[in-house]
Amino acid sequence: MALTPVIPQELIDAIIDHLFSDRSALAACSLVCKAWISRSRHHLLSDVCLSPITVPFILSLPPPSAFASYGRRLMIRSMASLPDGIEHFSSIEALFINHFNHGPATLSRLPSIFPVITVLELQSDLIVTFNLLINFICSFPLLRTLTLSRFWLTSPELTPNNLRLPESLRELNIRTPKLNFVLNWLNSLEHTPRLSTIRMYDLLEEHIPSVSDTLRVLGSSLQHLELELWDHAHADIFCEHINFNHNTALRSFTLHNGWPKLFRDLLESGIHHSQLEEATVTIYADRVPHLDLLDWASLDRLITDPRTAFRLTRLTFRVFTLSEMSEVTEDVVQSRLPLCAAHGIVRFVSERERLQSLSKALTGPIARRSWGDLLSG
Hints:
The protein has helices spanning 9-17, 23-29, 34-44, 55-58, 66-70, 104-113, 130-137, 179-188, 208-218, 235-241, 261-268, 296-304, 330-336, 338-342, 351-361, 371-376; strands at residues 47-50, 73-77, 94-98, 119-123, 127-129, 145-149, 152-154, 171-175, 197-203, 224-229, 252-256, 278-284, 314-320, 346-350. By secondary structure, the chain is α/β, with parallel strands linked by helices. It is built from 16 helices and 14 strands. Among the domains are: 25-117, no CATH class; 225-231 and 248-377, no CATH class. Strand 9 (197-203), helix 9 and strand 10 (224-229) form a beta-alpha-beta unit. The strands form two sheets. Strands 1-2-3-4-6-8-9-10-11-12-13-14 form a twelve-stranded parallel β-sheet. The radius of gyration is 23 Å and the shape is globular. The model is unreliable at 364-369 (pLDDT under 50).
């Protein structure tokens, strides 16, 4: 009798890993045999969303359920309180709290329930006290990525300078009208984590001093910077007061709604940015004349000049248009930068199509889109 060849488990896992985004294929694989179940569930059940709709199903299963065993990213969405059974998800590594109504007592329980959190995202339209937020964040000792979105923070009664952010923190993404509260506290710390990535959104003129101080404090630890101005008219003011020369290890820079001046200012100070490899600019333009706000010829020469300190390997233009049909196409952008195009540096992206595709990819039957995933995609 011929023996059936045994496929090594490592090879099975590697094959299934290639199907990580195909949920129907993963579901089929999980029904093939016992050797295929674990790896299939690893991808199928790694993202879990607890909401008033899903809780009765997910938490009704006897512990330890497959959701608790395989779940690594947990979103708690629109919950008034923590449901019974959530303690079985202690192996969760990424926690997303979306539109929550939790009080201080409930929030204080989360760090002990999820002790190995490395990714934390808080997204809410509610008003929370600044001190409560800072105490909560500092309670996750292994935190590497922190995302704060749409928080309305009350003024701190007493700035908690005695608290320290986790030394492991490397990435900060923040969008809040009270950005100054967070940045001023961060800048006042005696020991600031060596953040390598920071993304700041909805920047107003009043945020300029705090942003400038933050860039100075982070210094050479900062490698990836993304800025979004609330109004492109603020670009001139930012250009006058923001100094990128402290960030000598900068490898990538992304700018939304602030071109051309702020982007050009960074490149012209390129003598300090020898490691700069990638730059991304979002252009809001429906018609070709809108592009002529930028001196394309001088930018083309600056980027390709062999005497320039930095060596861009990719210059991405994300073009966002209000209409489905736009005069601004890839050929139009390429023609504005013939020298860069000849070096294969220029990349054109339809921002509308990119966001639609990313939004669809990040929405599933259990997992919901997180703002952090959207902005880093």
